[in-house]
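User: When convenient, might I ask for sequence and structure tokens for a protein?

AI:
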Amino acid sequence: MTTGFKHVELYGGAITVNLPAGYGDVSNIREVPDHQEIYLDANGFSSIVIELAERVSDPSTDQAALRYHFEDIVDEQDTSKIWRTDVAQFSKVPPNTPCYTLLATTTPPPVQSGQVARPLTPEFTTVLLTLVRLVEKSTDLLVTINIPQIPGHQEPAPGQEVQYEQGKYGSLVDQGMKLMEEVWKSLEVRDWSLFAEE
């Protein structure tokens, strides 16, 4: 469980954001693509990915672009369901910047007879995805929080009801939503030269 936040510099300080104190930089243990910053909960299985992607222009609306990016990150073998979408409220991005968010779940395919399940395979993963459309920079900034529900680990507290249809997501997802709200409040582009000019 996260108890506090730390100020983190991303992309060499070009972007700053507050992340949980217990989250560590994945690039310290494995290679991470240059367009991504990935932080992992040292005391659990949740992660946050900040990614700079080329702005998708095919979808007709910003909400369609949000769904496009979600479908792009989901494993094609997984079953997915988007439970809700909304407008995201950032404090430190330029006014009138289109920002949208969704809450979804992805479920891996069942283990086939004769196969052995991989250790720590999640029953399902909750995905909190936020899209910031930096139109002038031809960039889509994505923030993804992944919250795997792994049997025997991180299960709901006794007596805690989890009903996604009714908006009851459980304490792990509630923590993830608080983290996303902190990202919305704190994320700031400090050096716009990070983005290639057209």
Observations:
- The radius of gyration is 17 Å.
